[in-house]
């Protein structure tokens, strides 16, 4: 019938009064049902009753839907027309009252209002059906079980915990799911508790553990990393990851996070590592002895002590062929801290700290700063220097330099005002008006950017040892070029430095006033700059003229060169040559592409093979003679490029894979080697919701919560049926 389609819209169609049937015979004919009425009145649906030749009644679909009850109409033309708004109105015509045919407007006719409401309902229903189809597509492979509601709950719990949300967010999903038509009974509060949600999560955690055991069992080589962290409640935790290579891509596998009872001794950590890898990873002692080739830790004595550290004990007793790696990100960060020994770097750090502290906790000062910065700078908030994590100085220094004119301008006004803030503002103004500190601020930025890029390389998930060694070497060379005696300070990286030297140029950062003294002009205000010198224990501040400014610039250049030389020297000292790691370069395309003399390359290759066989050959990992014989296949490789891409291409050929079996084994070994414990750092720094034990009941479910968060499983691939079987067996 016309009213049965869910997607069609109803349009009211009525007879024109001029075409109305007239005469008794014609009127009786008009009272009999005609099939064309369905076209003219699509909202009318005749009621078919058995044993009746023709229908006598009809129902109005929009009105029945709106009222919630069936609206029956006699199947007569005049009845239907009156229902849709036909009426006769008495109107005076030439002094006489006559009945004139008129059709009601939408405001007057309730039926027309119901038709509009019903059309809107059909449109919303159609959109809801589309949303339902798109949402259900994600679960069509998963909802094969009879209990679709349970599997839906599994998927919602997995999604909530994988994005770091608390379990208490679960009821919020009832509203969108009900809207698109998934009215699952189990979403009612009387059928749901957080405890049941954690039961689902534990079942999925068991599936992830099972997959972890399979991955470690299939791996040829394994690396592990450890990192210790102190929580807010002063409890100590250790996080352990394993690393394997799948399809020439290194992947991190979360083993677990464990709370330490008492002091963290090396003996305790050794036992913790063995127990966790055995129980959670499913590895036997022989597997641990044969497969673990690298242990990444930070540089504390408990982890990396030369006599009795964790790495030494594992190498001596359980993993004789494992290479202990002092985390290269930590080492790079420690090397950078050498710059803080310089006085003017300390002044820059102190200036960044004081400027942030002055504005951070005073809404009034922040408002004045933003109002003052209009037309000068963007007025963005200053950043805090957190000197406990990586190269954190670059962000605060860049932001302070961007907002320097606005900061010194508003601080200058505050120092002249009356009130409590006058003293603090005056102290900060003295620091800001020190031109030598300002020059170091601008001159240090290229150095900070290069070191920050190096840290990012070391923290990359897919970086390999040789790639980082090359990046570290290039960084040192780059720094020495930037700050060299001959061509230093001339590259485009010194944009901020050059802006400070263009004194007197229109719109320049610095200007000379009429008396020849160096100043910063901010909104027609002259703020003089000084240089501070100590004489007999007393700090003397002197104004700077053009002659002295040139001398000062040369002095700052020399100071920046000293900082650069000290930093590069410290980096090289903290990363001494490691013959074993260097020998693994034979599988990297950089080793072959950069070689100039092929005859020298042959000898170098043999020496590197000897180093590898001395360390790993005793364990029958590698056959050194076989490896030397396979040299001809790769001494002039046609497939250059990234390491992963190279070995994926070589792996396509069965002939190469068979002919270069030992070489493929070295590639797998090299890819497994890690740079340190960055994965552990990333876990603790990103999991902010971990600190709220109440919302997630983490005193009982910490391991499950972390495992689902780190696994990053998506709804398309997660084996919900396996988790459902585990959950069902636990319930029974």
Helix content: 40-55%
Strand content: 5-15%
Rough shape?
flat
| Alpha carbon gyration radius | 39 Å
Helix count from the secondary structure assignment: 34
Strand order of the largest sheet: 8-7-6-9-10
What composes the largest sheet?
5 strands, mixed
* Secondary-structure class: alpha+beta
Unreliable stretches: 1-22, 141-146, 185-190, 630-641
The figure for the number of domains is: 4
Nearest-integer average pLDDT: 79
Instruction: Tell me the distance between the termini.
Output: 51 Å
Give a count of the beta strands, DSSP E runs of length 2 or more.
15
Protein name: DUF4371 domain-containing protein
Organism: Ceratopteris richardii
Task: Describe the protein's topology.
Blueprint: H1 24-30, H2 37-40, E1 44-46, E2 57-60, H3 61-67, E3 72-74, H4 77-83, E4 86-93, E5 96-103, H5 110-137, H6 148-162, H7 174-179, H8 194-218, E6 222-230, E7 236-246, E8 249-260, H9 266-279, H10 285-291, E9 292-297, H11 301-304, H12 310-317, E10 323-326, H13 328-336, H14 343-360, H15 363-373, H16 394-402, H17 404-416, H18 421-432, H19 435-443, H20 445-458, H21 465-482, H22 495-501, E11 511-512, E12 518-522, E13 525-528, E14 530-535, E15 538-543, H23 546-574, H24 579-583, H25 589-593, H26 598-616, H27 624-629, H28 643-652, H29 654-659, H30 661-672, H31 678-686, H32 693-696, H33 698-711, H34 720-731
Parallel strand pairs: 6-9, 9-10
Antiparallel strand pairs: 1-2, 2-3, 4-5, 6-7, 7-8, 11-12, 12-13, 14-15
Helix pairs in contact: 3-5, 6-8, 6-34, 8-33, 8-34, 13-20, 13-23, 14-18, 14-19, 15-17, 17-18, 19-23, 20-21, 21-23
Organism: Ceratopteris richardii
Protein name: DUF4371 domain-containing protein
InterPro entries: RNaseH-like_sf
């Amino acid at each position: 019938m016309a009213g049965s389609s869910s997607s069609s819209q109803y349009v009211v169609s009525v007879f024109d009064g001029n075409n109305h049937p007239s005469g008794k015979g014609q009127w009786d004919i008009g009272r009999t049902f005609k099939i064309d009425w369905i076209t003219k009145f699509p909202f009318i649906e005749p009621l078919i009753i058995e044993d009746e030749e023709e229908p006598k009644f009809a129902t109005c679909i929009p009105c029945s839907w709106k009222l919630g009850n069936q609206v029956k109409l006699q199947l007569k033309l005049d009845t239907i027309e009156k229902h849709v708004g036909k009426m006769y109105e008495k109107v005076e015509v030439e002094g006489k009252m006559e009945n004139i045919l008129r059709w009601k407007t939408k405001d007057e006719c309730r039926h027309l209002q119901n038709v509009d409401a019903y059309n809107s309902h059909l449109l919303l229903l159609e959109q809801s059906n589309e949303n339902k189809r798109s949402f259900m597509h994600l679960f069509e492979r998963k909802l094969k079980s009879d209990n679709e509601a349970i599997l839906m709950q599994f998927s919602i719990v997995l999604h909530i915990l994988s994005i770091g949300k608390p379990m208490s967010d679960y009821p919020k999903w009832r509203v969108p799911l009900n809207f698109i038509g998934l009215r699952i009974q189990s979403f009612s509060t009387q059928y749901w508790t957080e405890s049941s949600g954690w039961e689902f999560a534990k079942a999925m955690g068991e599936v992830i553990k099972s997959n972890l055991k399979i991955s470690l069992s299939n791996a040829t080589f394994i690396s592990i990393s450890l990192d210790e962290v102190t929580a807010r409640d002063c409890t100590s935790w250790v996080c352990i990851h394993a690393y394997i290579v799948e399809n020439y891509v290194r992947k991190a596998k979360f083993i677990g996070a464990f709370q330490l009872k008492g002091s963290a001794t090396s003996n305790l950590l050794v036992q913790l590592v063995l127990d966790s890898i055995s129980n959670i990873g499913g590895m036997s002692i022989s597997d641990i002895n044969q497969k673990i080739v690298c242990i990444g830790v930070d540089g504390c004595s408990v982890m990396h002590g030369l006599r009795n550290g964790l790495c030494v004990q594992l190498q001596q007793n359980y993993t004789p062929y494992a290479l202990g790696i002092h985390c290269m990100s930590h080492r790079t960060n420690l090397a950078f801290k050498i710059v803080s020994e310089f006085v003017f770097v300390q002044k820059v750090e102190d200036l960044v700290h004081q400027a942030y502290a002055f504005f951070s906790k005073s809404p009034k000062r922040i408002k004045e700063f933003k109002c003052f910065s209009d037309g000068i700078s963007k007025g963005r908030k200053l950043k805090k220097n957190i000197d406990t994590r990586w190269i954190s100085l670059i962000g605060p220094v860049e932001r302070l330099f961007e907002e320097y004119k606005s900061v010194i301008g508003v601080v200058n006004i505050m120092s002249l005002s009356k009130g409590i803030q006058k003293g603090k503002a005056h102290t900060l103004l003295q620091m800001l008006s020190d031109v030598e500190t300002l020059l170091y601020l601008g001159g240090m930025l290229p150095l900070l950017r290069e070191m920050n890029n190096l840290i990012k390389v070391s923290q990359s998930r897919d970086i390999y040892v040789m790639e980082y060694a090359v990046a570290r070497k290039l960084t040192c060379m780059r720094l020495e070029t930037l700050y060299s005696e001959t061509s230093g300070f001339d590259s485009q990286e010194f944009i901020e430095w050059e802006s400070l030297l263009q004194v007197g140029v229109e719109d320049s950062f610095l200007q000379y006033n009429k008396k020849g003294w160096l100043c910063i002009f901010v909104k027609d205000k002259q703020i003089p700059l000084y240089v501070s010198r100590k004489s007999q224990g007393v700090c003397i501040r002197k104004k700077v003229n053009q002659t002295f400014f040139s001398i000062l610039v040369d002095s700052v250049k020399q100071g920046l060169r000293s900082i650069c030389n000290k930093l590069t020297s410290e980096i090289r000292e903290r990363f001494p040559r490691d013959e074993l790691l260097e020998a693994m370069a034979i599988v990297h395309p950089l080793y072959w592409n950069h070689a100039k003399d092929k005859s020298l390359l042959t000898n170098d290759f043999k020496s590197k093979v000897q180093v590898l066989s001395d360390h790993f050959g005793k364990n029958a990992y590698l056959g050194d003679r076989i490896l030397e014989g396979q040299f001809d296949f790769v001494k002039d490789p046609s497939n250059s490029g990234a390491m992963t891409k190279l070995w994926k291409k070589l792996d396509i050929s069965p002939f190469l894979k068979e002919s270069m079996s030992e070489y493929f084994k070295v590639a797998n070994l090299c890819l497994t080697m890690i740079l340190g414990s960055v994965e552990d750092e990333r876990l603790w720094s990103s999991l902010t919701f971990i600190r709220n034990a109440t919302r997630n009941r983490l005193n009982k479910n910490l391991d499950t919560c972390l495992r689902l968060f780190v696994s990053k499983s998506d709804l398309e691939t997660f084996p919900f049926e396996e988790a459902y079987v585990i959950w069902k067996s636990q319930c029974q």
